[in-house]
Known about the structure:
The complex is a heterodimer of chains A (165) and B (155). With 165 residues, chain A is α+β, with helices and mostly antiparallel strands.
Amino acid sequence: MNETALPDDFERRLIIATQAGLPLVPRPYDLLAEQLGVSAEAVKARLAAMLESGRIRRIGAVPNHYAIGYTANGMSVWDVDDAHIARLGETIGKLDFVTHCYERPRALPDWPYNLFAMVHGHDRATVLAHIDEIAALLGTDCRRHDVLFSTAILKKTGLRIGNDG
Amino acid sequence: MSRPAPSSLDELDRRIINALQGGFPIVDEPYRQVAASLGTTETELLARIQRMLEARVLTRFGPMFQIERLGGRFVLAALAVPEERFAEVTERVNALPEVAHNYRREHALNMWFVLATETPDGIAAATRRIEADTGLKVFAFPKLQEFFVDMRLKA
Lengths: 165, 155
Protein backbone atom coordinates (compact mmCIF):
# COMPACT_ATOMS: atom_id res chain seq x y z
CA MET A 1 0.00 0.00 0.00
CA ASN A 2 2.91 2.37 0.60
CA GLU A 3 5.24 1.28 -2.17
CA THR A 4 6.40 3.58 -4.90
CA ALA A 5 4.98 3.07 -8.36
CA LEU A 6 5.21 5.27 -11.42
CA PRO A 7 1.92 6.88 -12.43
CA ASP A 8 -0.02 5.12 -15.16
CA ASP A 9 -1.29 7.19 -18.07
CA PHE A 10 -4.60 8.12 -16.41
CA GLU A 11 -2.91 9.08 -13.18
CA ARG A 12 -0.33 11.19 -14.96
CA ARG A 13 -3.05 13.05 -16.84
CA LEU A 14 -4.98 13.51 -13.60
CA ILE A 15 -1.87 14.98 -11.91
CA ILE A 16 -1.23 17.37 -14.79
CA ALA A 17 -4.90 18.44 -14.80
CA THR A 18 -4.92 19.21 -11.06
CA GLN A 19 -1.39 20.27 -10.14
CA ALA A 20 -2.26 23.94 -10.61
CA GLY A 21 -5.33 23.36 -8.45
CA LEU A 22 -8.77 21.80 -8.23
CA PRO A 23 -11.29 23.57 -10.52
CA LEU A 24 -13.30 26.23 -8.66
CA VAL A 25 -16.67 25.20 -10.06
CA PRO A 26 -19.62 23.57 -8.27
CA ARG A 27 -18.88 20.11 -9.75
CA PRO A 28 -15.05 20.01 -10.02
CA TYR A 29 -14.75 16.25 -10.52
CA ASP A 30 -17.28 16.37 -13.38
CA LEU A 31 -15.21 19.08 -15.05
CA LEU A 32 -12.00 17.05 -14.68
CA ALA A 33 -13.80 14.00 -16.09
CA GLU A 34 -14.88 16.00 -19.10
CA GLN A 35 -11.33 17.30 -19.66
CA LEU A 36 -9.86 13.81 -19.38
CA GLY A 37 -12.55 11.99 -21.36
CA VAL A 38 -13.49 9.63 -18.53
CA SER A 39 -16.43 9.35 -16.13
CA ALA A 40 -16.68 11.43 -12.96
CA GLU A 41 -16.89 8.13 -11.09
CA ALA A 42 -13.45 7.17 -12.46
CA VAL A 43 -11.95 10.50 -11.37
CA LYS A 44 -13.41 10.27 -7.87
CA ALA A 45 -12.44 6.61 -7.47
CA ARG A 46 -8.85 7.26 -8.53
CA LEU A 47 -8.44 10.31 -6.28
CA ALA A 48 -9.86 8.32 -3.35
CA ALA A 49 -7.49 5.42 -4.09
CA MET A 50 -4.50 7.79 -4.29
CA LEU A 51 -5.46 9.31 -0.93
CA GLU A 52 -5.84 5.87 0.57
CA SER A 53 -2.40 4.74 -0.65
CA GLY A 54 -0.66 7.99 0.32
CA ARG A 55 0.10 9.03 -3.28
CA ILE A 56 -1.95 12.12 -2.42
CA ARG A 57 -1.27 13.47 1.08
CA ARG A 58 -4.57 15.35 1.18
CA ILE A 59 -6.82 17.51 -0.98
CA GLY A 60 -6.88 20.99 0.41
CA ALA A 61 -5.48 24.47 0.73
CA VAL A 62 -1.89 25.53 1.33
CA PRO A 63 -1.92 28.88 3.12
CA ASN A 64 0.92 31.33 2.74
CA HIS A 65 2.09 31.15 6.34
CA TYR A 66 3.05 34.85 6.40
CA ALA A 67 -0.47 35.78 5.28
CA ILE A 68 -2.09 33.94 8.17
CA GLY A 69 0.21 35.54 10.72
CA TYR A 70 3.09 33.06 11.05
CA THR A 71 5.80 35.56 10.27
CA ALA A 72 8.64 33.70 12.01
CA ASN A 73 9.95 30.50 10.48
CA GLY A 74 12.91 28.77 12.07
CA MET A 75 14.58 25.66 10.72
CA SER A 76 15.90 24.08 13.90
CA VAL A 77 18.76 21.62 13.46
CA TRP A 78 20.11 19.19 16.03
CA ASP A 79 23.14 16.96 16.36
CA VAL A 80 21.78 13.88 18.07
CA ASP A 81 23.08 10.37 18.63
CA ASP A 82 22.37 8.26 15.53
CA ALA A 83 21.51 5.30 17.75
CA HIS A 84 18.55 7.18 19.24
CA ILE A 85 17.41 9.30 16.32
CA ALA A 86 14.29 7.25 15.51
CA ARG A 87 12.90 7.66 19.03
CA LEU A 88 13.93 11.33 19.24
CA GLY A 89 12.54 12.16 15.80
CA GLU A 90 9.17 10.61 16.66
CA THR A 91 9.04 12.64 19.89
CA ILE A 92 9.87 15.96 18.23
CA GLY A 93 7.62 15.28 15.22
CA LYS A 94 4.62 14.98 17.56
CA LEU A 95 4.96 18.58 18.83
CA ASP A 96 2.12 20.69 17.45
CA PHE A 97 4.39 23.59 16.44
CA VAL A 98 6.63 21.36 14.29
CA THR A 99 5.41 21.14 10.68
CA HIS A 100 8.16 18.92 9.27
CA CYS A 101 10.68 16.67 11.01
CA TYR A 102 13.32 14.65 9.21
CA GLU A 103 16.59 12.84 9.68
CA ARG A 104 19.10 14.13 7.12
CA PRO A 105 22.80 13.38 6.60
CA ARG A 106 25.51 15.46 8.26
CA ALA A 107 28.05 17.22 6.02
CA LEU A 108 31.14 17.27 8.22
CA PRO A 109 32.98 19.42 9.07
CA ASP A 110 30.65 22.20 7.85
CA TRP A 111 27.38 20.76 9.05
CA PRO A 112 27.17 18.52 12.14
CA TYR A 113 23.34 18.31 12.37
CA ASN A 114 21.26 15.23 11.54
CA LEU A 115 17.76 16.07 12.85
CA PHE A 116 15.77 18.88 11.24
CA ALA A 117 12.54 20.29 12.71
CA MET A 118 10.72 23.22 11.10
CA VAL A 119 9.06 25.53 13.62
CA HIS A 120 6.53 28.22 12.73
CA GLY A 121 5.38 30.97 15.08
CA HIS A 122 3.75 34.39 15.17
CA ASP A 123 7.12 35.95 16.11
CA ARG A 124 10.75 35.04 16.76
CA ALA A 125 10.35 34.96 20.53
CA THR A 126 7.64 32.31 20.20
CA VAL A 127 9.80 30.23 17.88
CA LEU A 128 12.77 30.53 20.25
CA ALA A 129 10.59 29.42 23.17
CA HIS A 130 9.56 26.36 21.14
CA ILE A 131 13.24 25.66 20.38
CA ASP A 132 13.88 25.66 24.14
CA GLU A 133 11.09 23.11 24.59
CA ILE A 134 12.71 20.86 21.98
CA ALA A 135 16.12 21.27 23.64
CA ALA A 136 14.61 20.27 26.99
CA LEU A 137 13.02 17.17 25.44
CA LEU A 138 16.26 16.10 23.75
CA GLY A 139 18.33 16.75 26.86
CA THR A 140 21.73 15.12 26.82
CA ASP A 141 20.92 13.18 23.64
CA CYS A 142 21.66 16.43 21.78
CA ARG A 143 25.27 17.57 21.46
CA ARG A 144 24.55 20.95 19.87
CA HIS A 145 21.86 22.74 17.91
CA ASP A 146 21.15 25.85 15.88
CA VAL A 147 18.12 27.64 14.42
CA LEU A 148 18.14 29.20 10.97
CA PHE A 149 15.45 31.88 10.60
CA SER A 150 14.21 32.60 7.11
CA THR A 151 14.61 36.24 6.12
CA ALA A 152 13.17 36.07 2.58
CA ILE A 153 11.20 33.71 0.37
CA LEU A 154 13.25 33.72 -2.84
CA LYS A 155 10.99 31.30 -4.76
CA LYS A 156 7.93 29.18 -4.07
CA THR A 157 6.36 27.30 -6.94
CA GLY A 158 6.18 23.60 -6.05
CA LEU A 159 6.78 20.69 -8.38
CA ARG A 160 5.51 20.92 -11.92
CA ILE A 161 5.52 17.88 -14.15
CA GLY A 162 4.71 17.27 -17.77
CA ASN A 163 4.84 20.88 -18.93
CA ASP A 164 8.49 21.17 -19.87
CA GLY A 165 7.88 20.40 -23.57
CA MET B 1 7.32 37.69 -2.77
CA SER B 2 4.47 39.72 -1.33
CA ARG B 3 3.32 39.19 2.22
CA PRO B 4 -0.38 39.96 2.47
CA ALA B 5 -1.38 41.49 5.80
CA PRO B 6 -3.07 39.05 8.21
CA SER B 7 -5.58 41.78 9.07
CA SER B 8 -7.07 41.60 5.58
CA LEU B 9 -8.68 38.27 6.50
CA ASP B 10 -12.04 38.26 8.19
CA GLU B 11 -13.41 35.59 10.48
CA LEU B 12 -15.08 33.59 7.67
CA ASP B 13 -11.84 33.65 5.63
CA ARG B 14 -10.02 32.14 8.61
CA ARG B 15 -12.65 29.46 9.11
CA ILE B 16 -12.47 28.63 5.40
CA ILE B 17 -8.66 28.32 5.52
CA ASN B 18 -8.88 26.05 8.56
CA ALA B 19 -11.64 23.91 7.05
CA LEU B 20 -9.83 23.55 3.73
CA GLN B 21 -6.70 22.25 5.44
CA GLY B 22 -8.67 19.16 6.44
CA GLY B 23 -9.94 16.47 4.11
CA PHE B 24 -11.79 17.97 1.15
CA PRO B 25 -14.73 15.74 0.20
CA ILE B 26 -14.70 13.64 -2.95
CA VAL B 27 -18.39 14.01 -3.76
CA ASP B 28 -20.27 15.50 -6.73
CA GLU B 29 -20.72 18.93 -5.10
CA PRO B 30 -17.89 19.22 -2.57
CA TYR B 31 -17.97 23.03 -2.26
CA ARG B 32 -21.67 22.93 -1.41
CA GLN B 33 -20.94 20.38 1.35
CA VAL B 34 -18.05 22.43 2.82
CA ALA B 35 -20.09 25.66 2.56
CA ALA B 36 -22.97 24.06 4.47
CA SER B 37 -20.60 22.98 7.25
CA LEU B 38 -19.35 26.58 7.50
CA GLY B 39 -22.81 28.13 7.41
CA THR B 40 -22.21 29.92 4.13
CA THR B 41 -23.16 29.42 0.48
CA GLU B 42 -21.35 27.59 -2.27
CA THR B 43 -21.13 30.82 -4.29
CA GLU B 44 -19.59 32.73 -1.38
CA LEU B 45 -17.11 29.93 -0.65
CA LEU B 46 -15.96 29.70 -4.27
CA ALA B 47 -15.58 33.48 -4.49
CA ARG B 48 -13.52 33.63 -1.30
CA ILE B 49 -11.20 30.78 -2.32
CA GLN B 50 -10.67 32.52 -5.66
CA ARG B 51 -9.94 35.82 -3.93
CA MET B 52 -7.50 34.30 -1.44
CA LEU B 53 -5.64 32.51 -4.25
CA GLU B 54 -5.37 35.78 -6.21
CA ALA B 55 -4.13 37.62 -3.10
CA ARG B 56 -1.71 34.73 -2.47
CA VAL B 57 -3.12 34.16 0.99
CA LEU B 58 -3.45 30.62 -0.34
CA THR B 59 -0.55 29.43 -2.44
CA ARG B 60 -2.53 26.48 -3.75
CA PHE B 61 -5.81 24.62 -3.47
CA GLY B 62 -6.06 21.04 -4.72
CA PRO B 63 -4.57 17.58 -4.33
CA MET B 64 -1.11 17.50 -2.70
CA PHE B 65 0.79 14.74 -4.42
CA GLN B 66 3.37 12.73 -2.49
CA ILE B 67 5.82 12.85 -5.35
CA GLU B 68 8.20 10.28 -3.91
CA ARG B 69 5.43 7.67 -3.97
CA LEU B 70 5.01 8.56 -7.65
CA GLY B 71 8.67 7.93 -8.47
CA GLY B 72 9.93 11.51 -8.12
CA ARG B 73 12.33 13.08 -5.64
CA PHE B 74 12.47 16.06 -3.31
CA VAL B 75 15.87 17.04 -1.91
CA LEU B 76 16.73 19.92 0.40
CA ALA B 77 20.00 21.61 -0.56
CA ALA B 78 22.01 24.62 0.55
CA LEU B 79 24.70 27.01 -0.65
CA ALA B 80 27.07 29.34 1.18
CA VAL B 81 26.68 32.41 -1.01
CA PRO B 82 29.08 35.34 -0.65
CA GLU B 83 26.97 38.37 0.33
CA GLU B 84 28.04 40.46 -2.68
CA ARG B 85 26.90 37.67 -5.03
CA PHE B 86 23.56 36.96 -3.36
CA ALA B 87 21.25 38.55 -5.96
CA GLU B 88 23.14 37.06 -8.90
CA VAL B 89 23.22 33.55 -7.40
CA THR B 90 19.51 33.77 -6.48
CA GLU B 91 18.73 34.50 -10.11
CA ARG B 92 20.83 31.59 -11.36
CA VAL B 93 19.40 29.10 -8.86
CA ASN B 94 15.78 30.19 -9.33
CA ALA B 95 16.15 29.89 -13.10
CA LEU B 96 16.10 26.10 -12.78
CA PRO B 97 12.56 24.71 -12.99
CA GLU B 98 13.67 21.95 -10.60
CA VAL B 99 13.99 24.54 -7.81
CA ALA B 100 10.55 24.41 -6.15
CA HIS B 101 11.18 26.59 -3.09
CA ASN B 102 14.09 28.79 -2.13
CA TYR B 103 14.60 30.61 1.18
CA ARG B 104 17.25 32.95 2.48
CA ARG B 105 18.31 31.93 5.98
CA GLU B 106 20.63 33.38 8.62
CA HIS B 107 23.69 31.12 8.60
CA ALA B 108 26.97 30.64 6.69
CA LEU B 109 24.81 28.31 4.57
CA ASN B 110 22.51 31.17 3.67
CA MET B 111 20.50 29.85 0.71
CA TRP B 112 18.25 26.80 1.23
CA PHE B 113 16.22 25.38 -1.63
CA VAL B 114 14.22 22.28 -2.48
CA LEU B 115 14.93 20.43 -5.70
CA ALA B 116 11.89 18.55 -6.99
CA THR B 117 12.21 16.22 -9.96
CA GLU B 118 10.07 13.62 -11.68
CA THR B 119 12.84 11.02 -11.53
CA PRO B 120 15.68 10.35 -9.04
CA ASP B 121 18.28 11.08 -11.76
CA GLY B 122 17.02 14.63 -12.10
CA ILE B 123 18.43 15.62 -8.70
CA ALA B 124 22.05 14.89 -9.57
CA ALA B 125 21.72 16.70 -12.89
CA ALA B 126 20.21 19.78 -11.24
CA THR B 127 22.92 19.78 -8.56
CA ARG B 128 25.70 19.65 -11.16
CA ARG B 129 24.03 22.40 -13.13
CA ILE B 130 23.84 24.71 -10.08
CA GLU B 131 27.49 24.03 -9.22
CA ALA B 132 28.52 24.80 -12.80
CA ASP B 133 26.36 27.94 -13.00
CA THR B 134 27.41 29.40 -9.64
CA GLY B 135 30.88 27.94 -8.99
CA LEU B 136 29.63 27.10 -5.46
CA LYS B 137 29.46 23.72 -3.73
CA VAL B 138 25.92 22.38 -3.30
CA PHE B 139 25.31 20.77 0.08
CA ALA B 140 22.56 18.16 -0.47
CA PHE B 141 20.49 16.96 2.48
CA PRO B 142 18.25 14.16 1.19
CA LYS B 143 15.88 12.92 3.86
CA LEU B 144 16.89 9.65 5.49
CA GLN B 145 13.76 9.28 7.63
CA GLU B 146 10.53 11.25 7.70
CA PHE B 147 9.15 11.55 11.22
CA PHE B 148 6.37 13.99 10.52
CA VAL B 149 5.07 16.25 7.76
CA ASP B 150 1.95 18.32 8.11
CA MET B 151 1.95 21.88 6.88
CA ARG B 152 -1.41 22.66 8.47
CA LEU B 153 -1.33 25.90 10.47
CA LYS B 154 -4.34 27.36 12.21
CA ALA B 155 -5.37 30.69 10.66
